[in-house]
Amino acid sequence: MSINHDNLEEYRDADTYDSINGGFEIGGNFYMNLAREYGSPILEIACGTGRITVPMAEQGYDITGVDITQEMLEAARQKATQHGVSVKWVHGDARNLELQRTYRMIFTTGNSFQAFSDRHSQERLLLTVHKHLDSNGVFAFETRNPIMSQLSTSNGKEEDAGTYVNKEGRTVFVTERCLYDHRTQLEHYVTRRRWKTKSSAEEISDTRIAIRYVFPQELEALLHYNGFYMEQMYGNFDLSPFQSDSPLMVCVCRKRPI
Fold first, then answer.
1. Is 2 inside any structural domain?
2. CA pair distance 55, 8, nearest whole angstrom
3. How far, CA to CA in Å, does 7 sit from each of 43, 75, 174, 211?
4. Kind of pairing, strands 202-212 and 103-108?
5. Phi/psi of residue 3, each to 5°?
6. Interval 183-209: pLDDT, tens
7. What is the 3 state secondary structure string of 96-163?
8. Are 51 and 120 in the same domain?
9. Is the peptide bond before 41 cis (omega within 30 degrees of 0)?
10. What is the DSSP letter of 225?
11. How high is the pLDDT of residue 2?
């Protein structure tokens, strides 16, 4: 059983994305430290609104940001202009990318690896990365660890998911309905947001998304058969060792010939 979804729907509202996804600190220091180690040029795939891209550019790195969603890229361009930095922004699908150069470091964050919702899409992404990565470069990303006891315990029931304040200063109340499909390893989400307008009318917005979980040994095999080896897997951005109950699989990968 699944919920019909459009995987770009959640990312067309850049203001909402920034309101709920926090600042640079969420993973930013981890990727910045890798940038210090490997240097430029850098490619960020699924760069979104430039949450990590722009601070890296401020540190003087030659960085390119790629995203499939025009609305997110426009917000990223505005941030770069406001901060007075130069970033090459590319609107494109990471599964079909031809940038005519290679990079010392390629990364994708925000658990965006899970947005590639089947094995074929993941392999096309990895082919793109392999093609654009220097032979001695690094590919890094994180993905949520699939802890079975936590996957879709709501069974499609609507549950409270907190609040945030939107750009108009209104409190937005969020609920989520999720359902995990063991066959496809997809978790389907419907997110509902409710808020009051200035006239006290209630506004409601629904978005749908599906994210794919991969298991640790599956991920290692996926990387191996697509030209990478796992140099390190951490359980979080604090470099803690990966354990069965770690929230994330934070992966640092190197390229091998294919």
1. no
2. 25
3. 22, 19, 19, 8
4. unpaired
5. -110, 130
6. 999 999 888 888 877 777 788 888 888
7. HCCCCCCEEEEEECCCHHHHCCCHHHHHHHHHHHHHHEEEEEEEEEEEECCCHHHCCCCCCCCEEEEE
8. yes
9. yes
10. T
11. 46
Average pLDDT over residues 226-250: 97
Is the Cβ–Cβ distance between 236 and 143 less than 8 Å?
A: no
Q: How many beta carbons lie within 10 A of that of residue 62, not counting itself? A: 15
CA 190 to CA 211: how far, in whole Å? 12
Give the model's pLDDT for residue 257.
77
Burial-class residue 98 by CB neighbours within 10 Å (0-12, 13-18, 19+).
Answer: exposed
> Average pLDDT in the 33-38 region?
98
| Inside any domain, residue 230 | yes
Rounded to an integer, the average pLDDT of 95-105 is: 97
Check whether 226 has a pLDDT greater than 80: yes
Task: Name the residue range of residue 62's domain.
Answer: 9-146+213-255
Question: Helix or strand or coil: residue 90?
Answer: strand
Domains identified in the chain, total number: 2
Distances in whole angstroms, Cα of residue 31 to Cα of each of 18, 68, 82, 88: 19, 21, 22, 18
CA dist 182 → 114, 122, 196 (Å): 15, 18, 38
Q: Is residue 200 part of a domain?
A: yes
Residues 79-102 have a mean pLDDT of: 97
pLDDT tens for each residue of 2-19 = 445 455 555 555 555 565
Asked whether residue 164 falls in the same domain as residue 76, the answer is: no
